[in-house]
Amino acid sequence: MLPRMSGSDDGWAGLAFTPPWRHYQRMALAAFDADLAARRRATHIVAPPGSGKTVIGLEIARRLGRPALVLCPTTAIQQQWGSALGLFGGAEAPLLTHTYQAICQTADPGGALEAAALERLAAERARDTAIGVEAARAELDGYEGAARRRLTRDVATVTATLKREIARGEHLDLAAHDLLGPGAAARLAELQARGVRTVLLDECHHLVSTWGYLVRAVIAALGDDVHVVGLTATSPLDLSGEEAALYDDLLGEVDFEIPTPAVVKEGYLAPYQELALFTTPLASEREWLQQHHARFQALLDRLHDPAPPGSAEEELSFGAWVIARIRYRDAEAGESSSFSFAAFAKRQPRLARAGLRYLGSAGLELPPDAPRGELTSAPPELDDWLALLDDWALRCLRAHPGEAAERLWEQLAGGLADIGFTLTRRGIRPGRDDLDRVLVNSSAKTLLVADALDAEHAVRGAGLRAVVLCDSERPARAPEETALTLGGGLALLSALAADDRTALLHPLLVTGTTVACAPADAEGWLAALAAELPPEVAATLRVEPLGGDAPLARLTADHAGWSTATYVPAVTRAFAGDGPHAAGRVLIGTRALLGEGWDCPPVNVLVDCTAVAASVSVRQMRGRSLRLDPGDDGKISSNWDVVCVAPELERGAADYHRFVRRHSHLHAPCEDGSIESGVSHVHPQLSPYAPPPEEQFTALNLAALDRAADLDSARERWQIGAPYRGEELPVLLVGAARERPGSGTAAPGTSAHGAAAASGTSAPGTLTIDPAPDPARPLPATGRLPGLAAVAASLVALAAAAAGSASAAVAAATVGDVALALALWQAA
């Protein structure tokens, strides 16, 4: 049922924004006026969380003066639009608000999609097994047991794919609006009846998949004169291909964009600093990690174990399959059985190379027409094994309907998951492996979270309002053969409640299903929530044991009104307040619930314990701590990352590289006050290419804790109110060479301020200048610098060498001058 559209169609006329407009808000509205004057039907505005995008959108709707629809990703954001109407002198307007989910519900009309999915699967099976489509369809119809269950899963997957393809317009016999479910179709009919002609797409960065196509179909159904307004904190510059085309079709180019640092420098967002702590896995975790690849090797050994003669397992033998596949090559459907190895290698070079290495390393006979030499003498590498296993899984296991094939499929899927890959119906695909999962969710991180919160509490006292964001409430999946507990909100709550330093902060966990705390804190939080909840819900509040290994208490209510829609606002008000019902200073929450759209201005510390590195999510999560606090004119926020590195392992730097990708989207002041993206604004010694040596972790952590305690310096680095140039500049990365952890190769430093800032281990004048665009910075030079960079580097190195005992400061100044000169030359 649609909510009632408040007011009449001309109800905008009596509304007006009462607070003064900010400078950049007036610029955004001027961009809209320009669109209107040019008869353009879309306005696209990019501005950070907390900058007032909602009131800009309402003002645009007011100026258009027509019934309007707001679509947003969450109910929390949906509620903010109604609240913002109060700033316009009223509570009613011809305005409807819905979530994207309410409009984008889909259906399978007449079962046509399921039938099409079965046809596609039959065609795939015919191609993989070199049989006819009719025969493949008959085999699918005859599946039973495990094969039937797998087919059901595959049909659901392909049906979802078909929906996306139809939404993209790839199937002309079915239009996108035909996919709308009954509820969504009814809402569209109501929107048409009410004459909606303005559509505001809040957090429109969500519209890069099926949602976008369906929203486009809904807008088209509303009429040709609809004006579309896109509001987001995320620039679409990172999009490419199909996503970029869809986004451009919906909204066109960005009409106005303001970067987060500009809003901070103008005084409309809180200044902030980016901080990080580094650790290595606990001994138990490290021991498991060291056995990580050994398990994959054990899987390969098991696949080569002899099967009982005449059994189904013998028929499905991996080794026998590879030998036959490479020696005889099973010609593709419709081709001669004399399919040459050269033709095979041209068509599938990765599989051909892997097969030759497999046969050659085992001393087995090679195909007579296959090449010999160094290629076949090398043992198979990981990529070779993946090629062989992918072919075996698709052409052998999937082509066999029996239970034995299903068991082997599941066994292989589990082994591949150990090394970071997923087995799908289309083959092996990259995924997150258990190694990465252990690093992201290491219990060593919880100790550093406590360190960060203790340091923040020491300087902020009762004013501390910290939010710790995680991916999920429950621990991530841990291998069954280990006793590892892999992160999650409950693990964080248990650790912080058990630590004497943070227990006194009364941490509370809030997720989509659970509100929990330490048993000793239950009565305080219960009283705080009772003061904020509706009386009928508060009257049924109670505490119950949460269960599990740690003694935790769940807060719940025996009332239908107990839901995220009621308890999240109540928790927020209790957490934000400083009155008699203030209960705690730390909230632990999932990024899905508190990472976007959640509004709590007093939050001044954010600890990111998620596995997210995407620009959209990173900006949204950071936005939770940047809103101005009416109760604290001097608010300065700290945003923390906690990074776990296992330097001795091949893939042990995965969490650090995620940290690098995360900061490539963020701008923050460096130690000298310059605003930079990339990890150098966290610490000048951090490199985007490799983690620091383990022996430097303690010094880096102490430096971060010291910076957290010096809030005055953090504010001064922003130079709020000082003139600034609101544009992005290219950066040339210059610094001293240092040893990469675990290797003998040099990695460039990350500071453009000189060699002394990058490393104290290399002699003055030993420089590395990287003229290529830096992937960790979103503001790279427009192209590679030509030979002038190398010439300049040589001149600096020669000058430093000739100086002999020249001080590091002189060398640093020289490098800085060269870097500045080259960057300005490139920009010109």
Brief description of this entry?
This protein has 828 residues and is of the alpha/beta class. Helices cover 45% and strands 12% of the residues. The strands form six sheets. A nine-stranded mixed β-sheet has the order 7-17-16-10-15-11-12-14-13, with helices on both faces. A six-stranded parallel β-sheet has the order 3-2-4-5-1-6.
Q: What structural class is derived from the secondary structure elements?
A: alpha/beta
Poorly predicted regions: 1-9, 331-336, 738-813
- Overall geometry comes to globular
pLDDT average, as an integer?
Answer: 79
How far apart are the termini?
A: 59 Å
Strand count, sense and barrel status of the largest sheet are: 9 strands, mixed
Spatially, the strands of the biggest sheet line up as 7-17-16-10-15-11-12-14-13
Helix content: 40-55%
β-sheet strand percentage: 5-15%
Oligomer: single chain
Counting DSSP H or I runs of 4 or more residues, the number of helices is 35
What does this structure look like?
This protein is α/β, with parallel strands linked by helices. 45% of the residues lie in helices and 12% in strands. The protein is built from 35 helices and 23 strands. Strands 7-17-16-10-15-11-12-14-13 form a 9-stranded mixed beta sheet, sandwiched between helices. Helix 9 links the parallel strand 4 and strand 5. Helix 5 (112-129) packs across helix 6, helix 15 packs across helix 17 (349-361) and helix 22 (443-460) crosses helix 23. The longest helix has 23 residues, at 145-167. The protein is globular, with a radius of gyration of 30 Å. The two termini are 59 Å apart.
